[in-house]
Write a structure and sequence with these properties.
The complex is a heterotrimer of chains A (about 290), B (about 525) and C (about 325). With about 290 residues, chain A is an all-alpha fold. Chain A contains twelve helices and no strands. Chain A has a single domain, classed as MetI-like fold. In chain A, helix 2 crosses helix 3 and helix 8 packs antiparallel against helix 10. Chain C is globular and about 85 Å long. Helices cover about 75% and strands about 0% of the residues of chain C. Chain C contains 13 helices and no strands. The chains are: A mainly alpha (about 290), B alpha+beta (about 525), C mainly alpha (about 325).
Chain lengths: ~290, ~525, ~325
Amino acid sequence: MRALLRAAPRRLHPAGRLVRRYPLGTAGAAIILVAVIAAAGADVLATHDPTRIDAAHTFLAPSAGHWLGTDYLGRDIYSRLMHGARVSLAVGITCSLLGGLVGGGLGLASGYAGGAVAFVIQPVLDIMQGFPLLVLALVMTAALSPSLATTIIAISVPFVPRVARVVRAAVLSIRETSYVEAATALGMSRLRIAVRHIFPNTISPLIVMTTAQLGSAILVEASLSFLGLGVPEPYPSWGRMLSVSAAEFAQKAPWLVIFPGVAISLVVFASNLLGDALRDFLDPRLRI
Amino acid sequence: MRGQKGGQWGVLTLFLGIVVTVAVSTAAAPSPKRGGILNAMHREDPPSLSIHEEATISTNWPMMPCYNNLVLFNPLFGQETVSTIVGELAEKWTWQDGGKALAFTLRQGVKWHDGRPFTSRDVKYTFDMVRGVPELASHLRLNPRKGWYANIQSIDAPDPFTVIFRLTQPQPSLLLMLASGYSPIYPAHIDAAELRSRCVGTGPFRLKEYRRGELIEMERNPDYFIRDRPYLDGIRFIIIRERGTRIAALQAGQLDVTMPQEGSKTAAEQLKRAVPSLVVVEAAHNVNDNILVNFKQPPFTDARVRRAVSMAIDRQGFVQAVRQGGAVVGASMQPRPWGNWGLPNDQLAQLPGFGDPTRQRAEARQLLAEAGFGPGKSIRVTVSTRAIALFVDLATYVIDQLKQVGIEGTLEQVDSAQWYAKLTRGDYALAGNLTGIGVDDPDANFYENYVCGSPRNYSQYCNPEIDRMIAQQSQTLDPVQRRRLVYEIQKRLEIDGARPILGWSVDSYVMWPYVKNLVPHESIYSYARFQEVWLNR
Amino acid sequence: MWPFVARRLTLAALTLVGMSLVIFVLLRLAPGSIVDLIFQSAGYVDPAAKQRIAHELQIDRPVAIQYLLWVRDLAHGDLGISYRYGLPAWQIIRGRIPTTVELATLAMLVAVLIGVPTGILSATHQDTAVDYGLRVFSLAGLSMPAFWLGMVILLFLVREFHWIPSMTYISPYVDLRAHLVQFSFPALAVGYRSAALISRMTRSSMLEVLREDYVRTARAKGLPRRIVVNRHALRNALLPVVTVIGTEFAFLIGGLVVTETVFNLPGVARYLVEAITWRDYPIVQNLVMFIAIVVVCSNLAVDLLYARLDPRVRYE
């Protein structure tokens, strides 16, 4: 963390150079920003009530009245997308942060402390890891009944061991490098070594994993919706918008499927771009 | 006197049946071809293979070909009335004793798939088991249609080929219920529990293989009692869980016919556009979408509030939005032209929820105000429904409509595992629900869903006067008089808000043009015998 | 090395016991039981009949007893009787395992074949058009919901060719070509996503390694770039990639569930989900344990591989 803070002033580029250096990353950040704005301002930005059913105006193609058309119940797709951004981002961000924090901590502890600590943590991680993500999510939604909180918990838990494992792998390969040995020889405390030398080196995989999970979480929520679970109505999640209408209306009213599909793919795509760029930007060794 | 009339009726029916069968088989342009395998759509593993123990098309559709009934609704006619009933294991039948006894003469020389002969003992055994005679060795684990046969006093089998059903009261509808796909004859020599995982019937097809989650394969029964039937060599019921995949498989020609209840109007339109030669048949399936109002749960203990709920929901809008036009409005019996008992339009128009939506809403708001609710004191209610897309759409629509009269609904999605348990416990306030009815007959519907104390009367509606009217119509032999009573009951049920009906869905049944003689009926449960179906390939 | 292996084996055994407990308890926390579901199709619930069925299925016994009975049966190789089908669970599961294993293996093959080369190319051509192009391609794989990708493939095929892969399982012994055709599309749908993940991981770890001292030394010594990359960098860069492949196998199941559903393959992944919704405990428990064993073993293998590939990892 300190390495990060210390480095920050030197890393500040004018915006133009940042864009030129990381064009994909900037694009990613911009897309996420748009999604965040949509989520935050859904109440203002939406032109219609996202749950209002209008039997007389179902399957309307995009027009001035309904910018992205209406769905099979006559609900305004644009407004649903705006409100859906809330659900999808809430699921995505909360899950990836939870998974990243808990998983990163456990991975660091298990990899560096080793011995008894690893012996306790490792089986717990292995237990969590052994369950396929979707299965755990399904059993948990069944046990807790579908809700936003259930979905978040169900998706976060399986992320923990994934992050922990990769972080641990990074720790293991760094622990034996010459500069850590040198620091040990110089008499630095273990905690200090962990904070100063090990942790900064785990940031890169941690960020790759966490941002990838931002996307994954949104995708898993979509898969849960496809299987009839996931975040329940009335919250219009993108996953549900896509999965309910995908097969049935793809040919009759493609806009029902295209817009939520594009929304999901774009945000997931953007979060991955951003993750890559952040990694390039933050990785200490890229600056040596 | 009455008995004689009943007898003539039966003979007339038989005669009509024969005439009709002959007419159709000679009139149908090319003469039927033998051979070929039909690939039929299936959506899931049947809960079990035992028709008597289930109440779902998922069991009837693949298992009906394995069995025979005493009598059956003519497979070649969409309408199911007493005049379209034809004999299967029964050669002829007569009403006796003033409509209090129904006697069947059975077909001789029929064999079970395991080679044993079929006799009257099997018939008596089957219906004694279904009506729950306690001293039988074999019993049904589940018995969803026990109520259909509550009026039977005894079943006599005086000789191997005669069976007489003796009734407490006259009940003309008994014959219709016996003609349903839900009423196959089971073999007395095999434990009913075994029939959950295998099939021993007398039917035109035998179970060849059941690969769970994949395929139910039937093969032609070479010893079938009608010599040149069935035409097909076999039927493959291909189980495809995902709806979109099912539609794609039909479009790609991997399936020849859709599954009853699986043809939505939108899907059919898309298919027809992609493959113009596909045949689409619109047929109702005797399933209604409804809303359950819990009579024991305040504020719905107040008749005005219940009435307001029913009024607030625009039925025409429901049909357009939730069913995309693939439904018709109606009361508690299947509407015309599909059903035989549907309330005429002029009477329907006066029921709650059928008039002009704006006026209805105003009236609903007024009713709520009278009951003490309004701005400042609005009703907040949980609307429960199953976690299945169609149910969720239904409930979402209801919530939206209620919002417009000031009732704030929140949706609760219930896992299928808990759904009926929850309804039976009465653990809900409002619920979005679907009700399928086995036979288009008032007895089958009213006794199951509306009489006091019926396990499927989820709203716990109980009106002794209605019960009396239901019993009265059941015994009425004169069709005109019975119809008048049934209309009256339907009106009363809707006004009482016993189970407000939102719409009756219409199946858009899709098949490839080379599939012949597969005629969708007005009820989905009775047309899957496949005895007459052939392929013009 | 051997004490290390012994310790890892002990850990693995502990893990399996822990998992069996977790899944057992979690399943019993879920409201509703098979008996409710049996009644679901009948549309009513009869309390007396319900009790009788619960007794027949032995689910009215205390949970601890049920657990012990399960473990005892498992130790004897008896997986119990499926609540739903009334048939031995093993008989139902057996036929489905090869389908899923084959699909997973094919998908992984697709993933590695696409992922590793594109990752290396991306790294060695960092910040060039090649890099951007490959990254966008691999990111696209990570950005689409798996069911959506499968559905798009299916709809495309039916629209353009009036054809889709067979809806019923074709045995490789009957028709190998048709079998492979049937599996190739779902394998592609599942594998694309994993390929993207592997490609990213390869790229990022390759970039790190390329900046390591020993690689720079090798370059300074005048070794050709290609030899440095192949001999020195690749070997070490693939370490984290091996980890990802190991963990991805468990993760893959999620993709398999929806893909088997969309392509209607009679695999065990899709069936697991059905069994959960049916509360068919004998099936769910044993399948989850089966997957657990596979995952635990693959984790073990990854750890051991680590120890062999990277001499710096101590056996502790």
